[in-house]
Amino acid sequence: MTRRIKFTVLISVFVVLGLNYSWLHAAMVVGTADDHCESQILDQASARVVDLFGEQSSQPWIRCLDAPHLGLGKTIGTTNFAPGLPAIIILNRDGHNVDVIAHEWAHAELAERVGVLTRTYRLPTWFDEGLAMQVDFRADYGDVALAKMLLEAEAPELDQIDSPSTFYQSGVQGRVHYAWSRCVVSSLLEKEPLSSLIQKILAQQDPIGGCRLE
pTM value? Predict the structure, then answer.
């Protein structure tokens, strides 16, 4: 019986990792790259996550790459997930700053709280990214930048940016999606605490509010 249990566990691990190749790929980078992030930047990013969520439950593995490694590190920042395993954050040189690290860490914290599968399949992308933007203070996505971008791009309806396939776009429209989601989530958080907002969205209750540019 013990041998059968061990075999079942081993098969389950291989299935989980096999279905999460991106996480396994990122784990190989963590295991072979020595490019650690500066502790001061990590502390500052962690403080922003705590400020947003109230406390920090996640312990992601984070690597700040100076150059692409094993094919990763070509984008500014990515977070890789697998159920029951730590999130893995990989950043290239442009992501070696508090804003990007805190942004990716917020994704990891949200997944830690609601579960990887819930975050992936039940939370709309606009909320996931809009929440991460609450700890990402880059001016390119602030109210002033958004107002300028809306002169040449459209403000989206939330149901138009609720999935990765519709949210992530190149150019100005893609940046608008991030900035608009930041603005919407910021407005919602002024009305109710994060925990109840998450539960309302998971219950598929339409949030009341929108983006109010200052």
Answer: 0.89
Q: Give me the residue label for tokens 């500066």.
A: 38
> For residue range 63-73, what is the model confidence (pLDDT) as tens digits?
999 999 888 88
The β-bridge relationship of strands 88-91 and 61-64 is: parallel
d(CA 155, CA 213): 12
Based on C-alpha coordinates, what's the Rg of the chain?
Answer: 18
Strand partners, 90: 63, 78
On the CB side of 113, how many CA atoms lie within 13 Å of its CA?
Answer: 20
Taking the C-alpha atoms of residue 61 and residue 191, their distance in angstroms, rounded to an integer, is: 33
> What was the pLDDT predicted at 4?
60
23-26 own/partner pairs: CB under 8 Å, 24+ apart: 23/80, 23/81, 23/82, 23/85, 23/88, 24/82, 25/70, 25/71, 25/72, 25/80, 26/61, 26/72, 26/78, 26/80, 26/88, 26/90
